[in-house]
Amino acid sequence: MSLVVVDIGVGNTASMIWALERLGGQPRLSSDAACIAEAERLVFPGVGAAGFAAGRILALGLTEALRAFDRPLLGVCLGMQMLFQGSEEGDAPGLGRLAGMVRRLEPSPERPSPHMGWNRLSKLTDDPLLEGIEDGAYAYFVHGYAAPVTPETLAACAYGGDFSAVVRQGRAWGCQFHPERSGPVGARVLRNFLDLPC
């Protein structure tokens, strides 16, 4: 199985690769459009600012490869946010694979931003990516922006209001939380992803 982890210079790619290797995957790190386009499955991690990430995607010539990829794709954290139409963080354009805009989490004394730590997943619908994940399971989040709950939301999370924690559009999935840092729950999500048919 050809498994590629997208490298745009704004992701915790080392921990993602390690998590996939622990599950028996043999991931390859790449920022090459041809390599990405030919992969059997793709993981698109990201940490940092949406504007910078959008600029890197453009500079590396990855826009069309990421938009057109029609096999299993998993966006993680910022990687998930980049699947949407755009983000108000720096007015960054997204890839447009999911409808909606990523918005800033409004801070309060009770809910500082960024949202950092463990929080519950509220499953809204069954999906192979969430097989074996119980409603109310905990996952680890680190983010200051979030996508709205839409018809493509598989699981939501509450932090003030609800936001999308897991999404799917066709063969593209996204996790706002970090599966590589979410213990057995995150490992099961990654295992499920590796087991998806191409």
What is the element string, with H for helices and E for strands?
EHEHEHHEHEEEEEEEEEEH
**Proportion in helices:** 10-25%
Global geometry: globular
First and last CA, distance: 9 Å
Mean pLDDT: 96
Number of DSSP-assigned strands? 14
For this structure, the quaternary state is single chain
- Unreliable stretches: none
Share of residues in strands: 25-35%
**Total of DSSP H or I helical runs spanning 4+ residues:** 6
Q: How are strands sequenced across the largest beta sheet?
A: 2-1-3-4-14-13-12-9
What structural class results from the helix and strand content?
alpha/beta
Outline of the structure:
This protein has six helices and 14 strands. The chain is of the alpha/beta class and 198 residues long.
Describe the structure.
This protein is of the alpha/beta class. Helix content is 25%, strand content 33%. The chain has 6 helices and 14 strands. The protein has helices spanning 13-22, 33-38, 50-59, 63-68, 78-81, 183-195, and strands spanning 3-6, 27-30, 41-44, 73-76, 84-87, 92-93, 98-104, 115-120, 122-123, 138-143, 145-146, 153-159, 161-169, 172-175. Strands 2-1-3-4-14-13-12-9 form an 8-stranded mixed beta sheet. The mean pLDDT is 96.
